[in-house]
Amino acid sequence: MSAEPSHPRRSSARWRIPLLLGLLLGTLLFYRWRLELRRGPLTYRIGTVDARFGMSREAFGEALGRAAALWNGALSRELFRESSGGVLEINLVYDYRQEAAERLKALSLRMDDTQEGFERLKAHFETLKGEAEQKGSSLERDFAAHNARVAAFNARSEAARRGGVGEELHRHLEAERLELDAGKAALLARQEELKELAENLKSLVVVLNNFALNHNLDLVDYRRTGDRLGPEFSEGEFVQEGGRRSITIYHFPSADGLVRVLAHELGHARGLGHLENPRAVMHPLLWTDVPELSPEDIQSMRVKAGSR
Length: 308
Description:
Mean pLDDT is 81; it is low at 1-11 and 224-232. The protein is α/β, with parallel strands linked by helices and 308 residues long. The chain has 7 helices and 5 strands.
């Protein structure tokens, strides 16, 4: 009996059709989005507002309304409209970026957007780094000495227990135990101080590497804390995946700065790219907190949104 011939091409064809349909659907969704941008306003709604920012949904919504009004007013046309069923979800998410900025603010440290400011803060970082390394080595030595004293104390206590403990020996051992407990408490307090110093260094690394990445400078590294930064430190991002669109804000320097960051991401949601003018809202870096559109911003939106 001869074997039935196989048909590998049929199997391949079964996968080819769904793939083509998926590509067709993706293309249709893309062009539908482009058509929406030209036809009418892009509706948006507020999603998550992280309580750790200390900002209410109402306050976030007000900042978002100001950002939308920048574009609507500049083009004398409703480009963005808030709606409970809006297609664009806008979130405020707290992570290491805002945490780092707030920690440095509490330390009265802030880097202006100049290389001089970068070098000044980097020098402060190097000083703290040396202090942390020195304190870490000293603490490690003192912990080792303390543990050796505890081991010797335990051995003496066990020997005294087996041989019977007199009143004088008991008082001596109790005094030594109290001394050891006090020493341990002091070591743990120093350990907490060192942890706080390490967190300050991490925050400095985040802020310094944000500037370094955006200005093509050498990155700062401290026990791999820079790995948290990833390829880019961004205040926010616009993401489109299939039919879902969202804006997520991670960090902002001030109330006006939040409006400017939101306006930047709303621009991306309407299809705008980055502009070279440092004063433009659509510039890749947040050079200023002032929520004001540049002529380049307005012209770019006119072209993208089909306004004349």
